[in-house]
Specification:
The protein is built from 15 helices and 14 strands. It is an alpha/beta fold. The strands form 4 sheets. It has an 8-stranded mixed β-sheet with strand order 3-4-7-8-9-10-11-12, sandwiched between helices. β11, α14 and β12 (369-372) form a beta-alpha-beta unit. The longest helix has 26 residues, at 382-407.
Length: 431
C-alpha cells in the first residue's frame, strides 16, 4: 500500500523540466545565523564590561612564603607545643555529630609515584609475590620502595601467602583457619625478583602458619638461602613469627645465612593479651629472640614496639630492660595507626619529642641502635638505618682489633656478602 501511494505521487508529480527556476540576487539575503545564537551587540565605550578585581584580591592575599612559614607575615611563628597540638573536628549528619581527632601533620605521607615504586609493584604482580607494605597498608611505601637510590631501596616481602592463621587486633592482614597451601616455587621466585631489582637490603616476613607442622620455618630458610645464592651482597633481615614456641624452628631460620633476625614483641607485657592474638605471648617472644642469639651469637637481633596503645612509661621501661637482658641489639619505636574501624582504636598520638626521648633512653640502656619516630616501622628505611648505624659501628669496633694483624702483613678486604672485615694474606682470603 505504501509502495502504491509512493508510485501514485511520483506519477502525478510535475515534470522537473517544467518547473520555473527562480534566481534571487544574493544581495537580497541577510546572513544566516544559528537559531540559538544571540546577536552580538556592538561594543562601545559606554557598554564595555568593567575589568575584574579578582587579580587584585589575589595579589593582596597571602603569598607562598606565608604558607611555608605557617601564617601571614607579622604573626609569631608556632611554638613546638602549638605545632604538635592535636586538632579535632565534628563529623556526621545533623543531630548525630561526633568529635574525632584529626590525623596529626607529622603522620601524613605523600602518594607513591616514583618509577622504582612502579617497577617493584609490576614485578610483584608478575611473580605472584606479596609484601607486608601493601597488605598492612604501611604509610612509608613511597619512601621505602623509592629509596634514595636503587641500591638503598627497601622492600618487605611477605612469604607463605597473604592469609594468616592468627588475628591480632592491630593488623589488617587477612585471616583464616585454613589458608591455601604453600607455593613450592615461592623461594625461587622471591630470589629471582630481588636479584632483578638490585636492592641493597630486603626484609622477609611472613604470615603465621599454625596449620603447618614447622610453622613454615623450612620454607623461610630455603628462601633466604636462594637469595644469598643469587645476590650474595644483599643484606637480608628475617622478621619471623614465634613458630608456636618451637625453638628448633627458630634455630633453623637463624642458621640459614641471614644478617638480622627480627621478631616483634609489638607492645608491653600488660597489653599483650588485648593487642595480639591469644597464641602470641610476651614471654614466648622473648624466648624466640634469645634462641636466635644463642644459635648464632654474632647474629643481630631486633624487635619493634608500637606506641599509642595505652602503655605507660614504667611498662615501656621494663620491656626495654627485659630485651637488654637477652642481648637484643636493635629496637624500633613507631606510632600505632588504626587500619580500619574494626581494629583497636588509637589511645594516644605520641609526639615526635616523646619518640626522641625513648630513642635516647634505649641507647643509654645499651642498645646498639634505635630507630624511633611516628612513621618508623619494623622495616621502615631498613637499609639506610641499618647500614649507616649498625654495620658501620660494628666495622669500627672490629677495625681496632684487626690493626695488629694488618701490621703483620695482612690486608683488609670487605667480604662481598656481608660487612664483616676479613683480615689475612691477600692471596689466601678468598680461597
Amino acid at each position: 500500500m505504501a509502495s502504491a501511494a509512493s508510485t501514485f505521487r511520483c506519477l502525478n508529480a510535475p515534470q522537473l523540466s517544467n518547473v520555473t527556476r527562480l534566481r534571487v540576487p544574493s544581495s537580497s539575503f541577510a546572513p544566516r545565523s544559528f537559531a540559538t545564537a544571540a546577536s552580538e551587540p556592538s561594543v562601545t565605550d559606554s557598554t564595555r564590561r568593567k575589568t575584574t578585581h579578582f587579580k587584585d584580591k589575589l595579589n593582596a592575599g597571602p603569598s607562598f612564603s606565608d604558607f611555608v612559614s605557617g601564617g601571614p607575615s607579622g604573626e609569631p611563628a608556632l611554638t613546638q607545643d602549638d605545632a604538635f597540638e592535636l586538632k579535632t573536628a565534628m563529623v556526621g549528619p545533623e543531630g548525630k555529630k561526633k568529635e574525632i581527632t584529626r590525623l596529626p601533620e607529622w603522620l601524613k605521607t605523600p602518594v607513591p609515584i616514583s618509577e622504582n615504586y612502579k617497577k617493584i609493584k609490576k614485578d610483584l604482580r608478575g611473580l605472584n609475590l606479596h609484601t607486608v607494605c601493601e597488605e598492612a597498608r604501611c604509610p612509608n611505601i613511597s619512601d621505602c620502595w623509592g629509596g634514595s637510590s636503587k641500591s638503598t631501596a627497601t622492600a618487605t616481602i611477605m612469604l607463605m601467602g597473604d592469609t594468616c592463621t592468627r588475628g591480632c587486633r592491630f593488623c589488617s592482614v587477612k585471616t583464616s583457619k585454613a589458608p591455601p597451601p604453600l607455593d613450592p616455587h615461592e623461594p625461587e621466585h622471591t630470589a629471582e625478583a630481588l636479584s632483578r631489582w638490585g636492592l641493597g637490603y630486603v626484609v622477609l616476613t611472613s604470615v603465621d602458619r599454625d596449620d603447618l607442622a614447622d610453622g613454615g620455618a623450612r620454607h623461610f630458610a630455603e628462601t633466604i638461602m636462594k637469595i644469598k645464592q643469587k645476590a650474595p651482597s644483599m643484606l637480608v633481615e628475617a622478621l619471623t613469627g614465634d613458630y608456636a614456641g618451637d625453638l628448633d624452628m627458630v634455630k633453623t631460620v637463624a642458621m640459614s645465612g641471614l644478617d638480622v633476625y627480627a621478631h616483634n614483641i609489638e607492645t608491653v607485657e600488660a597489653l599483650t593479651p588485648q593487642v595480639r592474638d591469644r597464641r602470641a605471648k610476651f614471654r614466648q617472644s622473648l624466648r624466640v629472640l634469645d634462641a636466635a642469639k644463642r644459635a648464632k651469637p654474632e647474629l643481630i637481633t631486633k624487635t619493634s614496639i608500637m606506641l599509642g596503645l595505652g602503655e605507660t612509661d614504667e611498662q615501656l621501661t621494663e620491656a626495654l630492660k627485659e630485651l637488654r637482658a637477652i642481648n637484643v641489639d636493635v629496637v624500633t619505636f613507631g606510632q600505632y595507626m588504626r587500619p580500619t574501624k574494626r581494629h583497636m582504636k588509637v589511645e594516644e598520638y605520641v609526639s615526635p619529642t616523646a619518640f626522641e626521648r625513648w630513642r635516647q633512653t634505649a641507647l643509654d640502656m645499651g642498645f646498639l641502635y634505635c630507630a624511633s619516630g611516628p612513621l618508623v616501622r619494623s622495616s621502615y628505611k631498613a637499609g639506610e638505618a641499618f647500614i649507616e648505624n649498625v654495620l658501620k659501628k660494628r666495622a669500627q669496633r672490629s677495625s681496632s682489633e684487626s690493626t695488629q694483624q694488618v701490621k703483620e702483613g695482612g690486608e683488609i678486604f670487605e667480604r662481598p656478602n656481608s660487612s664483616q672485615i676479613i683480615v689475612g694474606p691477600a692471596e689466601s682470603i678468598f680461597h
